[in-house]
Amino acid sequence: MTARDEVLARIRTALGPDRPPPEIARDYRTTDERTVAELLAVLTDRLEDYRATVLRCAPDAVAATVAAALDAGLGAGWDPASVVTAPGLPGPWRPGGAAEDDGRPAAELAAFAATLTGVAVAIAETGTLVLDGSPLSGRRALSLLPDCLVCVVEAGQVVSGVPEALTRLDPAAPLTMVSGPSATSDIELNRVEGVHGPRTLLVVLVA
Amino acid sequence: MSHVFLGIPTAPRGVGHLRGDRPFPEAAREALRDGQLRANLGHATSTIRAKRAAVVGELPDWEQLRAAGRAIKAATMARLDEHLLELEARVTERGGTVHWARDAAEANAIVTRLVRDTGADEVVKVKSMATQEIGLNEALEAAGIHAWETDLAELIVQLGEDRPSHILVPAIHKNRAEIREIFLRTMPDVDPHLTDEPRQLAMAARAHLRERFLRAKVAISGANFAVAETGTLAVVESEGNGRMCLTLPQTLITVMGIEKLVPTWRDLEVFLQLLPRSSTGERMNPYTSLWTGVTDGDGPSEFHLVLLDNGRTATLADEVGREVLHCIRCSACLNVCPVYERTGGHAYGSVYPGPIGAVLSPQLTGVEDNASLPYASSLCGACYDVCPVAIDIPSILVHLRAEHVEAQTRLTPEAVAFKALAKAMSNSRLWRTAQKATRLGRLLARGRPILPATLPPPASQWTFSRDLPTPPKETFSEAWAREHRR
Ligand code: SF4
User: Fold this and answer.
1) Is the pLDDT of residue B306 over 70?
2) How many percent of chain B have pLDDT more than 90?
């Protein structure tokens, strides 16, 4: 017997023939009555709690706000050529002179100082940005290797909680949920920001 | 129903880390003498308990989520064979390869062969309980393949040639000063002026591993969840070492216990709320990666999923004990356990310590191989209260004690006592008589609230490490009858 057949046979022996699955009551919250303005305030609060920096702006001020975010993340006078963007990022959001990700090897990607991407969904209650591997979010390595990550989030992408976010996502896509900068709780169970992922997370919130 | 009679094999001896080399009471007595260990554990667990309580209290629907989590897991187990086949079909459709392993030895052999096929002589690893359970690192090492642990706490344990003592934070028994000392001693390029500031320690780990992530050809991970309906796997982490391993190498090998499944994509909406709040006490952990097979131009081009039994089907055969397979390894039960807080994780012998370890390890190995673990608890019930999937750990402990007693051929005084207790509790007349008989103990106590520890043997065996309260003047039912008499 193959291992597969044997494990399956063991399961059937263990459970026996009579095994009705129990009912699952989904009486937890799946929707939310809060207004967009309230959700944006909650998202900002949660992100700042993780020590991310949030900059709010109007739709026509994204480029200037991205520049301000990079000032905060890299220090004034940063080199535009040290910034790499997701390939599908709208042109008007990009700093002039920034590179676009073209699938180059990881070691080259790691040499950039900062990455600029959009997101697929943002979850207010948990302060989470979800990147889905689309041209707007970029491939997974892009938001991982450079030490500073700037994400542009539009108000229409913000949902209240985890259940609503999952309905908007494609399970087949490579998904990354980002909640603050990289961190660890491994030393005396205290959260310390910054280990292997980006040590700085800046969010440009467009509303 | 007991699995012993169904002939389903438990986790084999001689491979992996499910058995200690001595019984719990002996190991615990030694751990209790280590004041530094107790201080480190007390500090860490009280920090995390407060954080967990705050973020759990924030959700008005926590109890509903908890009940849903429990029901989803029970539904998963009821149809485990079908869900596994569905997972296999979806992963295969998306370009992955699924392997099945009856036990630790078989899983180690599969992974070793897969790594050899790539020609690599080193792998990077994401923290995974399953690979610790089967002793994968040792198996790879024996085949000339070096495994780099990349999770900070795992790295501390690996560099310190130590053993993990907690399922979430394997180096919880080490404080910052001890970690600094390990890094200074074992990291070749470390800054000699390294202080014990946690941020500096984290930076040292980053520098130590950066190059290895960029050059690694093969990564090995575990999985927190797998979705049968879509073939999606999930790894929940904090540092980004998981993302490095899941994204950069060409080949990814994931080793997963067969119980880690959930049936549908929607089920994740429950567990992605329950897990981070219960484990690190955060609203969400920094990074969660979800992937389905392979994706062109993004991440590994080869993906292998190894499905591991190693005693899980034997556990499934026990109608009471199978509930431990619902565990999502959050570690909340360890953090609230008064026994764990004092003894630490090493005393449990197995890689699964604390309350969950006390009910899981004896079932994976068969209770005779971990016979002291079901007794490593005061049955206070704190573990049940915090468990995000409401596993009734105290009841399973009692069930396993009974099974252990049952399996013993030689009758110990304790076994006789438990058998007599079971008999008395099943008959109300006998029970009332027994309760009245305990009043004789009042004579021994002579007015003190606790009976003297110097009871004659065999009772002294029991009272050596336990306070036995002086029996009350009347039983609860007698008092009730008296106070409510009209
Ligand atoms: S038994 Fe419950 S509380 Fe303990 S680790 Fe498992 S899920 Fe968490």
Assistant:
1) yes
2) 71
ipTM for the complex shown: 0.97
Q: Which of B168, B244, B284 would best serve as a mutation to test chain A binding (most A beta carbons within 10 A)?
A: B284
Residues of chain B in contact with residue A174, where contact means CB-CB under 8 angstroms, are: 289-292, 295, 298-299
Q: Classify A65 as helix, strand or coil.
A: helix
| Identity of residue B146 | H
Distance in Å, alpha carbon of A168 to nearest chain B alpha carbon: 11
Q: Is residue B373 part of a domain?
A: no
> Which of B76, B224, B278 has most ligand 1 atoms within 8 Å of CB, for mutation?
B278
- Number of independent structural domains in chain B: 2
Residue with the bigger pLDDT between B263 and B30: it is: B263
Give yes or no: residues B296 and B423 share one domain.
Answer: no
Is residue B76 located within the same domain as residue B215? yes
Q: Is residue B13 in a domain?
A: no
| Continuous segment of H or E residues that includes residue B437 | helix B428-438
Is the domain of B160 the same as that of B294?
yes
Domain definitions of chain A by residue range: 32-206
Q: DSSP characters for B153-216? A: HHHHHHHTT----SSS-TTTT--HHHHHHHHHHH-TT--TT--S-HHHHHHHHHHHHHHHHHH-
Distance between CA atoms of B240 and A186, rounded to whole angstroms? 13
Domain A32-206 of CATH type 3.40.50.10420? yes
The one-letter amino acid at B151: D
| Cα(B383) to centroid(ligand 1), Å | 8
CATH for B112? 3.40.50.10420
Query: Of B312, B343, B377, which closes a domain?
Result: B312
Is A194 in contact with B45 (Cβ distance < 8 A)?
A: no
What is the average pLDDT across B146-171? 91
Probe residue for ligand 1, chosen from B330, B393, B397 as the CB with the greatest number of ligand atoms within 8 Å: B330
* Cα–Cα distance measured from residue B203 to residue B201, given in angstroms and rounded to the nearest whole number: 5
Shared-domain flag, residues B249 and B127 = yes
Last residue of a domain, one of B279, B312, B345: B312
CB B363 within 8 A of CB B324: yes
User: Closest ligand 1 atom to the C-alpha of B331?
Assistant: 5
Asked, for residue B262, whether it belongs to a domain, the answer is yes
Which residue range forms the structural domain that includes residue B272?
Answer: 66-312
pLDDT tens, position by position, B322-359: 999 999 999 999 999 999 999 999 999 999 999 999 99
By mean pLDDT, which of A139-143, B150-154, B166-170, B450-454 is the weakest? B450-454
Judge if B279 and B428 occupy the same domain.
Answer: no
If one compares A189 and B128, the residue with the highest pLDDT of the two is B128
**Structural element, H or E, at residue A5:** helix A3-15
What does the DSSP assignment read for B361-430? HHHHH-GGGGTTGGGS-----HHHHH-TT---HHHHHHHHHHHHHHH-SS--HHHHHHHHHHHHHT-HHH
**pLDDT reported for residue A171:** 98
Domain membership of residue B75 (yes or no) is yes
Facing B43 at nearest CB: one of A103, A179, A188: A188
Convert the pLDDT of each residue in B133-153 to its tens digit: 999 999 999 999 999 999 999
